[in-house]
Amino acid sequence: MQTNLADFIKDTPDGREADAILRSCVHCGFCNATCPTYQLLGDERDGPRGRIYLIKQVLEGARPTERTQTHLDRCLTCRACETTCPSGVRYARLADIGRAVIAAQVGRPARERLRRGALRRALAEPRVFAPLLALGQALAPLLPAKLRARVPARVPRSDWAPLRHARRMLVLEGCVQPSLAPNINAAASRVLDRLGISLERVPGAGCCGAIDFHLDAGDTARRRMRSLIDAWWPRLEGAEAIVFTASGCGMMLKDYVYALADDAAYRDKARRIAASCRDLSEVLLANRDALRAVCRPATARRVAFHSPCSLQHGLRIRGAVETLLGELGYELTPVPDAHLCCGSAGTYSILQPELSQRLKVAKQTALNCGRPEEILTANIGCLTHLHTGLQTRIRHWIEAVDERIATVA
Ligand code: SF4
Ligand code: SF4
Q: Which domains does the chain have, with CATH numbers?
Protein backbone atom coordinates (compact mmCIF):
# COMPACT_ATOMS: atom_id res chain seq x y z
CA MET A 1 0.00 0.00 0.00
CA GLN A 2 1.36 3.45 -0.93
CA THR A 3 1.72 5.85 2.00
CA ASN A 4 2.49 9.51 2.55
CA LEU A 5 2.61 10.07 6.28
CA ALA A 6 2.08 13.56 7.69
CA ASP A 7 4.94 15.64 9.10
CA PHE A 8 3.78 15.25 12.72
CA ILE A 9 4.62 11.53 12.71
CA LYS A 10 6.64 10.50 9.67
CA ASP A 11 10.10 10.96 11.21
CA THR A 12 9.27 9.45 14.61
CA PRO A 13 9.97 5.80 15.57
CA ASP A 14 6.19 5.13 15.67
CA GLY A 15 5.75 6.80 12.30
CA ARG A 16 8.48 4.73 10.66
CA GLU A 17 7.09 1.54 12.15
CA ALA A 18 3.52 2.38 11.12
CA ASP A 19 4.70 3.24 7.64
CA ALA A 20 6.42 -0.14 7.24
CA ILE A 21 3.32 -1.96 8.50
CA LEU A 22 0.99 -0.01 6.23
CA ARG A 23 3.19 -0.72 3.23
CA SER A 24 3.09 -4.46 3.97
CA CYS A 25 -0.71 -4.52 3.59
CA VAL A 26 -1.85 -5.36 0.06
CA HIS A 27 -5.49 -4.61 0.87
CA CYS A 28 -6.63 -8.11 -0.14
CA GLY A 29 -9.26 -8.33 2.62
CA PHE A 30 -8.61 -11.99 3.54
CA CYS A 31 -8.42 -10.84 7.17
CA ASN A 32 -12.06 -9.70 7.17
CA ALA A 33 -13.15 -13.33 6.94
CA THR A 34 -11.91 -14.13 10.45
CA CYS A 35 -12.61 -10.82 12.17
CA PRO A 36 -15.31 -11.21 14.85
CA THR A 37 -16.52 -7.62 14.68
CA TYR A 38 -16.73 -7.67 10.89
CA GLN A 39 -18.76 -10.86 11.13
CA LEU A 40 -21.13 -9.26 13.65
CA LEU A 41 -21.48 -5.80 12.11
CA GLY A 42 -20.75 -6.33 8.41
CA ASP A 43 -19.24 -2.85 8.10
CA GLU A 44 -15.87 -2.56 6.33
CA ARG A 45 -14.76 -0.03 8.95
CA ASP A 46 -15.36 -2.65 11.65
CA GLY A 47 -12.97 -5.10 10.04
CA PRO A 48 -9.16 -5.07 9.94
CA ARG A 49 -8.78 -3.85 6.37
CA GLY A 50 -11.09 -0.89 6.99
CA ARG A 51 -9.42 -0.08 10.31
CA ILE A 52 -6.02 -0.15 8.67
CA TYR A 53 -7.32 2.30 6.10
CA LEU A 54 -8.78 4.57 8.82
CA ILE A 55 -5.44 4.61 10.64
CA LYS A 56 -3.61 5.32 7.38
CA GLN A 57 -5.84 8.35 6.74
CA VAL A 58 -5.20 9.70 10.24
CA LEU A 59 -1.44 9.19 9.99
CA GLU A 60 -1.52 10.95 6.63
CA GLY A 61 -3.07 13.99 8.28
CA ALA A 62 -6.86 13.52 8.08
CA ARG A 63 -8.63 14.73 11.19
CA PRO A 64 -10.08 11.73 13.10
CA THR A 65 -13.60 11.96 14.49
CA GLU A 66 -15.41 10.22 17.33
CA ARG A 67 -16.72 7.86 14.66
CA THR A 68 -13.15 6.90 13.71
CA GLN A 69 -12.42 6.26 17.36
CA THR A 70 -15.54 4.10 17.74
CA HIS A 71 -14.45 1.79 14.92
CA LEU A 72 -11.07 1.38 16.62
CA ASP A 73 -12.68 0.92 20.05
CA ARG A 74 -14.83 -1.89 18.69
CA CYS A 75 -11.72 -3.84 17.72
CA LEU A 76 -11.00 -6.56 20.30
CA THR A 77 -7.27 -6.62 19.47
CA CYS A 78 -7.78 -10.37 19.24
CA ARG A 79 -5.24 -10.59 16.39
CA ALA A 80 -7.22 -13.21 14.47
CA CYS A 81 -6.55 -11.00 11.45
CA GLU A 82 -2.80 -11.40 11.97
CA THR A 83 -3.15 -15.17 11.88
CA THR A 84 -5.11 -14.98 8.64
CA CYS A 85 -3.06 -12.31 6.85
CA PRO A 86 -0.89 -13.82 4.08
CA SER A 87 1.37 -10.74 4.07
CA GLY A 88 2.29 -10.84 7.77
CA VAL A 89 0.78 -7.43 8.55
CA ARG A 90 1.33 -6.58 12.23
CA TYR A 91 -2.13 -5.18 12.71
CA ALA A 92 -2.09 -4.98 16.53
CA ARG A 93 1.07 -2.87 16.60
CA LEU A 94 -0.42 -0.53 14.00
CA ALA A 95 -3.64 -0.33 16.02
CA ASP A 96 -1.65 0.62 19.14
CA ILE A 97 0.02 3.47 17.25
CA GLY A 98 -3.22 4.59 15.59
CA ARG A 99 -5.22 4.49 18.81
CA ALA A 100 -2.68 6.62 20.68
CA VAL A 101 -2.71 9.26 17.92
CA ILE A 102 -6.51 9.26 17.72
CA ALA A 103 -6.90 9.45 21.53
CA ALA A 104 -4.57 12.48 21.58
CA GLN A 105 -6.46 14.23 18.77
CA VAL A 106 -10.08 13.33 19.57
CA GLY A 107 -9.93 12.88 23.34
CA ARG A 108 -12.85 11.39 25.26
CA PRO A 109 -15.85 12.90 27.03
CA ALA A 110 -15.32 13.52 30.77
CA ARG A 111 -17.65 10.66 31.74
CA GLU A 112 -15.73 8.20 29.59
CA ARG A 113 -12.39 9.42 30.96
CA LEU A 114 -13.69 8.91 34.49
CA ARG A 115 -14.93 5.43 33.66
CA ARG A 116 -11.64 4.40 32.10
CA GLY A 117 -9.67 5.93 34.97
CA ALA A 118 -11.79 4.07 37.53
CA LEU A 119 -11.36 0.80 35.66
CA ARG A 120 -7.61 1.24 35.52
CA ARG A 121 -7.36 1.97 39.21
CA ALA A 122 -9.72 -0.83 40.25
CA LEU A 123 -8.27 -3.58 38.07
CA ALA A 124 -4.55 -2.87 37.83
CA GLU A 125 -3.95 -2.39 41.55
CA PRO A 126 -4.33 -5.61 43.58
CA ARG A 127 -4.59 -3.59 46.80
CA VAL A 128 -7.68 -1.87 45.37
CA PHE A 129 -9.15 -4.82 43.49
CA ALA A 130 -8.87 -7.39 46.32
CA PRO A 131 -11.00 -5.46 48.88
CA LEU A 132 -13.50 -4.45 46.17
CA LEU A 133 -13.94 -8.09 45.16
CA ALA A 134 -14.23 -9.18 48.80
CA LEU A 135 -16.92 -6.54 49.35
CA GLY A 136 -18.83 -7.67 46.25
CA GLN A 137 -18.64 -11.28 47.40
CA ALA A 138 -19.88 -10.38 50.90
CA LEU A 139 -22.83 -8.42 49.48
CA ALA A 140 -23.62 -10.92 46.72
CA PRO A 141 -26.40 -12.75 48.64
CA LEU A 142 -28.28 -9.44 48.90
CA LEU A 143 -28.09 -8.68 45.18
CA PRO A 144 -30.73 -9.50 42.56
CA ALA A 145 -30.06 -12.89 40.92
CA LYS A 146 -28.85 -11.38 37.63
CA LEU A 147 -26.26 -9.19 39.35
CA ARG A 148 -25.31 -11.91 41.82
CA ALA A 149 -24.41 -14.21 38.95
CA ARG A 150 -21.83 -11.68 37.80
CA VAL A 151 -19.91 -11.65 41.07
CA PRO A 152 -17.13 -14.26 40.95
CA ALA A 153 -17.40 -16.77 43.81
CA ARG A 154 -14.78 -16.80 46.53
CA VAL A 155 -12.08 -19.38 45.81
CA PRO A 156 -10.14 -20.98 48.67
CA ARG A 157 -6.37 -20.51 48.52
CA SER A 158 -4.24 -23.62 48.14
CA ASP A 159 -0.64 -24.22 49.18
CA TRP A 160 2.28 -23.00 47.13
CA ALA A 161 5.03 -25.59 46.66
CA PRO A 162 8.12 -24.90 48.78
CA LEU A 163 11.15 -23.42 47.03
CA ARG A 164 13.49 -26.40 47.30
CA HIS A 165 15.02 -27.05 43.88
CA ALA A 166 18.16 -25.72 42.23
CA ARG A 167 16.19 -25.33 39.01
CA ARG A 168 13.96 -22.31 39.40
CA MET A 169 11.65 -20.09 37.39
CA LEU A 170 10.03 -16.77 38.21
CA VAL A 171 6.30 -16.23 37.85
CA LEU A 172 4.09 -13.29 36.91
CA GLU A 173 1.54 -12.79 39.69
CA GLY A 174 -0.69 -10.45 37.71
CA CYS A 175 -3.27 -7.95 38.95
CA VAL A 176 -6.71 -9.57 39.25
CA GLN A 177 -5.73 -13.23 39.10
CA PRO A 178 -4.32 -13.51 42.66
CA SER A 179 -7.75 -12.42 44.00
CA LEU A 180 -10.03 -14.11 41.47
CA ALA A 181 -8.23 -17.41 41.08
CA PRO A 182 -5.28 -17.78 43.49
CA ASN A 183 -5.24 -21.52 42.86
CA ILE A 184 -3.95 -21.18 39.30
CA ASN A 185 -0.41 -20.10 40.08
CA ALA A 186 -0.33 -22.30 43.19
CA ALA A 187 -1.28 -25.29 41.01
CA ALA A 188 1.48 -24.34 38.56
CA SER A 189 3.98 -24.25 41.43
CA ARG A 190 2.94 -27.75 42.58
CA VAL A 191 3.12 -29.26 39.10
CA LEU A 192 6.53 -27.70 38.42
CA ASP A 193 7.71 -28.81 41.86
CA ARG A 194 7.02 -32.43 40.87
CA LEU A 195 9.18 -31.85 37.81
CA GLY A 196 12.04 -30.58 39.96
CA ILE A 197 11.49 -26.88 39.30
CA SER A 198 10.74 -24.25 41.94
CA LEU A 199 8.37 -21.48 40.93
CA GLU A 200 9.32 -18.26 42.67
CA ARG A 201 7.08 -15.28 43.43
CA VAL A 202 8.88 -11.96 43.55
CA PRO A 203 7.42 -9.10 45.61
CA GLY A 204 6.30 -6.28 43.33
CA ALA A 205 5.85 -8.50 40.25
CA GLY A 206 2.17 -7.63 39.85
CA CYS A 207 0.43 -5.96 36.94
CA CYS A 208 2.12 -6.22 33.51
CA GLY A 209 0.68 -2.85 32.40
CA ALA A 210 -1.76 -4.21 29.81
CA ILE A 211 -4.85 -2.61 31.35
CA ASP A 212 -3.37 0.89 31.33
CA PHE A 213 -1.77 0.33 27.93
CA HIS A 214 -5.13 -0.45 26.32
CA LEU A 215 -7.03 2.33 28.11
CA ASP A 216 -5.22 5.36 26.68
CA ALA A 217 -2.71 5.49 29.56
CA GLY A 218 0.56 4.62 27.87
CA ASP A 219 2.77 6.54 30.32
CA THR A 220 1.26 4.81 33.35
CA ALA A 221 1.58 1.47 31.57
CA ARG A 222 5.26 2.09 30.90
CA ARG A 223 5.80 3.03 34.56
CA ARG A 224 4.29 -0.31 35.55
CA MET A 225 6.43 -2.14 33.01
CA ARG A 226 9.62 -0.56 34.38
CA SER A 227 8.65 -1.37 37.94
CA LEU A 228 7.91 -5.00 37.00
CA ILE A 229 11.30 -5.26 35.28
CA ASP A 230 12.96 -3.75 38.36
CA ALA A 231 11.24 -6.30 40.60
CA TRP A 232 12.38 -9.28 38.50
CA TRP A 233 15.80 -8.07 37.51
CA PRO A 234 17.77 -9.02 40.68
CA ARG A 235 16.28 -12.56 40.59
CA LEU A 236 16.59 -13.15 36.85
CA GLU A 237 20.16 -14.48 36.86
CA GLY A 238 19.99 -18.25 37.18
CA ALA A 239 16.23 -18.44 36.56
CA GLU A 240 15.40 -20.66 33.59
CA ALA A 241 12.38 -18.61 32.57
CA ILE A 242 9.68 -16.21 33.62
CA VAL A 243 6.43 -18.17 33.55
CA PHE A 244 3.00 -16.72 32.97
CA THR A 245 -0.30 -18.54 33.40
CA ALA A 246 -2.47 -15.81 31.85
CA SER A 247 -1.81 -15.61 28.12
CA GLY A 248 -3.20 -12.06 27.94
CA CYS A 249 -0.48 -10.86 30.30
CA GLY A 250 2.09 -12.95 28.45
CA MET A 251 1.27 -11.19 25.21
CA MET A 252 1.88 -7.83 26.89
CA LEU A 253 5.21 -9.04 28.32
CA LYS A 254 6.36 -10.03 24.84
CA ASP A 255 5.31 -6.58 23.60
CA TYR A 256 7.60 -4.83 26.11
CA VAL A 257 10.11 -4.89 23.25
CA TYR A 258 7.94 -2.38 21.36
CA ALA A 259 6.44 -0.53 24.31
CA LEU A 260 9.86 0.33 25.76
CA ALA A 261 11.75 0.62 22.47
CA ASP A 262 12.27 4.39 22.95
CA ASP A 263 13.45 4.05 26.54
CA ALA A 264 17.25 3.95 26.44
CA ALA A 265 17.51 2.83 30.07
CA TYR A 266 15.07 -0.06 29.75
CA ARG A 267 15.12 -1.11 26.09
CA ASP A 268 17.70 -3.89 26.53
CA LYS A 269 16.20 -5.07 29.79
CA ALA A 270 12.78 -5.22 28.12
CA ARG A 271 14.23 -7.40 25.37
CA ARG A 272 15.75 -9.78 27.89
CA ILE A 273 12.54 -9.98 29.92
CA ALA A 274 10.47 -10.64 26.80
CA ALA A 275 12.90 -13.33 25.66
CA SER A 276 12.76 -15.01 29.09
CA CYS A 277 8.97 -15.19 29.23
CA ARG A 278 7.26 -18.54 28.61
CA ASP A 279 3.68 -19.62 28.67
CA LEU A 280 3.27 -22.45 31.17
CA SER A 281 2.24 -24.81 28.37
CA GLU A 282 5.60 -24.29 26.63
CA VAL A 283 7.45 -25.17 29.83
CA LEU A 284 5.41 -28.31 30.42
CA LEU A 285 5.61 -29.38 26.79
CA ALA A 286 9.40 -29.21 27.03
CA ASN A 287 9.14 -31.48 30.11
CA ARG A 288 6.33 -33.70 28.81
CA ASP A 289 7.99 -37.07 29.52
CA ALA A 290 8.67 -36.10 33.12
CA LEU A 291 5.09 -34.81 33.40
CA ARG A 292 3.58 -38.06 32.14
CA ALA A 293 5.76 -39.99 34.58
CA VAL A 294 4.33 -38.20 37.62
CA CYS A 295 0.70 -38.28 36.50
CA ARG A 296 -1.94 -40.70 37.61
CA PRO A 297 -2.93 -43.11 34.81
CA ALA A 298 -5.59 -41.59 32.65
CA THR A 299 -9.30 -42.10 33.00
CA ALA A 300 -11.17 -40.75 30.02
CA ARG A 301 -12.64 -37.34 30.71
CA ARG A 302 -14.23 -35.20 28.05
CA VAL A 303 -13.04 -31.61 28.08
CA ALA A 304 -13.34 -28.65 25.73
CA PHE A 305 -10.35 -26.35 25.52
CA HIS A 306 -10.94 -22.66 24.93
CA SER A 307 -7.75 -21.32 23.41
CA PRO A 308 -7.59 -17.59 24.22
CA CYS A 309 -6.84 -15.24 21.31
CA SER A 310 -3.78 -14.05 23.20
CA LEU A 311 -2.47 -17.63 23.19
CA GLN A 312 -3.31 -18.72 19.63
CA HIS A 313 -3.07 -15.41 17.73
CA GLY A 314 -0.97 -13.15 19.96
CA LEU A 315 1.67 -15.62 21.16
CA ARG A 316 1.07 -18.05 18.27
CA ILE A 317 1.08 -21.01 20.62
CA ARG A 318 -1.29 -23.49 19.05
CA GLY A 319 -1.94 -27.06 20.11
CA ALA A 320 0.45 -27.11 23.10
CA VAL A 321 -2.20 -27.34 25.83
CA GLU A 322 -4.28 -29.69 23.70
CA THR A 323 -1.25 -31.98 23.21
CA LEU A 324 -0.51 -32.04 26.93
CA LEU A 325 -4.14 -32.75 27.83
CA GLY A 326 -4.33 -35.50 25.20
CA GLU A 327 -1.17 -37.12 26.55
CA LEU A 328 -2.66 -37.08 30.03
CA GLY A 329 -5.71 -38.97 28.82
CA TYR A 330 -8.24 -36.20 28.29
CA GLU A 331 -10.58 -36.51 25.37
CA LEU A 332 -10.88 -33.13 23.68
CA THR A 333 -14.33 -32.35 22.35
CA PRO A 334 -14.67 -30.34 19.12
CA VAL A 335 -15.01 -26.54 19.34
CA PRO A 336 -16.33 -24.96 16.12
CA ASP A 337 -14.86 -21.58 15.15
CA ALA A 338 -12.16 -21.95 17.80
CA HIS A 339 -10.29 -19.05 16.23
CA LEU A 340 -13.00 -16.56 17.23
CA CYS A 341 -12.75 -14.35 20.29
CA CYS A 342 -15.02 -14.95 23.32
CA GLY A 343 -15.52 -11.20 23.77
CA SER A 344 -13.52 -10.84 26.98
CA ALA A 345 -10.50 -8.98 25.57
CA GLY A 346 -9.32 -7.19 28.71
CA THR A 347 -11.87 -4.51 29.57
CA TYR A 348 -13.79 -4.93 26.29
CA SER A 349 -16.61 -6.78 28.05
CA ILE A 350 -17.21 -3.68 30.19
CA LEU A 351 -16.63 -1.04 27.50
CA GLN A 352 -18.41 -2.83 24.62
CA PRO A 353 -20.97 -4.95 26.51
CA GLU A 354 -23.33 -5.60 23.61
CA LEU A 355 -20.77 -6.97 21.17
CA SER A 356 -18.98 -8.79 23.97
CA GLN A 357 -22.18 -10.50 25.10
CA ARG A 358 -22.95 -11.73 21.57
CA LEU A 359 -19.47 -13.17 21.24
CA LYS A 360 -19.70 -14.77 24.66
CA VAL A 361 -22.96 -16.57 23.96
CA ALA A 362 -21.65 -17.83 20.62
CA LYS A 363 -18.45 -19.09 22.30
CA GLN A 364 -20.33 -20.79 25.14
CA THR A 365 -22.51 -22.59 22.59
CA ALA A 366 -19.45 -23.65 20.58
CA LEU A 367 -17.63 -24.90 23.68
CA ASN A 368 -20.63 -26.91 24.84
CA CYS A 369 -21.51 -28.45 21.50
CA GLY A 370 -19.37 -31.59 22.07
CA ARG A 371 -20.96 -32.06 25.52
CA PRO A 372 -17.75 -31.77 27.55
CA GLU A 373 -17.71 -32.56 31.27
CA GLU A 374 -15.74 -29.38 31.82
CA ILE A 375 -14.15 -26.51 29.92
CA LEU A 376 -10.51 -25.58 30.33
CA THR A 377 -8.79 -22.39 29.31
CA ALA A 378 -5.52 -20.47 29.70
CA ASN A 379 -6.39 -16.89 30.56
CA ILE A 380 -8.07 -15.43 33.63
CA GLY A 381 -9.99 -12.86 31.55
CA CYS A 382 -11.65 -15.49 29.33
CA LEU A 383 -12.30 -17.70 32.34
CA THR A 384 -14.12 -15.02 34.33
CA HIS A 385 -16.01 -13.74 31.30
CA LEU A 386 -17.19 -17.16 30.05
CA HIS A 387 -18.12 -18.34 33.54
CA THR A 388 -21.20 -16.11 33.74
CA GLY A 389 -24.25 -17.94 32.45
CA LEU A 390 -22.35 -21.18 31.80
CA GLN A 391 -23.69 -24.43 33.25
CA THR A 392 -20.52 -26.40 32.51
CA ARG A 393 -17.63 -26.00 34.93
CA ILE A 394 -14.76 -23.86 33.61
CA ARG A 395 -11.27 -23.52 35.06
CA HIS A 396 -7.61 -23.11 34.10
CA TRP A 397 -6.12 -26.20 32.48
CA ILE A 398 -3.24 -26.37 34.98
CA GLU A 399 -5.74 -26.99 37.77
CA ALA A 400 -6.89 -30.13 35.95
CA VAL A 401 -3.28 -31.28 35.47
CA ASP A 402 -2.52 -30.53 39.12
CA GLU A 403 -5.41 -32.76 40.16
CA ARG A 404 -3.89 -35.70 38.32
CA ILE A 405 -0.55 -35.15 39.94
CA ALA A 406 -1.88 -34.52 43.42
CA THR A 407 -3.17 -38.07 43.74
CA VAL A 408 0.25 -39.63 43.07
CA ALA A 409 2.01 -40.76 46.26
S1 SF4 B 1 -4.02 -7.00 6.68
FE2 SF4 B 1 -3.31 -8.70 5.42
S3 SF4 B 1 -5.16 -9.89 4.93
FE4 SF4 B 1 -5.82 -7.85 5.63
S5 SF4 B 1 -6.01 -6.62 3.79
FE6 SF4 B 1 -3.94 -6.26 4.54
S7 SF4 B 1 -2.66 -7.78 3.49
FE8 SF4 B 1 -4.80 -8.45 3.21
S1 SF4 C 1 -7.78 -7.62 16.10
FE2 SF4 C 1 -9.62 -8.94 16.00
S3 SF4 C 1 -11.37 -7.53 16.13
FE4 SF4 C 1 -9.55 -6.29 15.66
S5 SF4 C 1 -9.52 -6.11 13.44
FE6 SF4 C 1 -8.23 -7.89 13.95
S7 SF4 C 1 -9.62 -9.66 13.87
FE8 SF4 C 1 -10.90 -7.81 13.95
A: 7-106 (1.10.1060.10), 295-406 (3.40.50.1860)
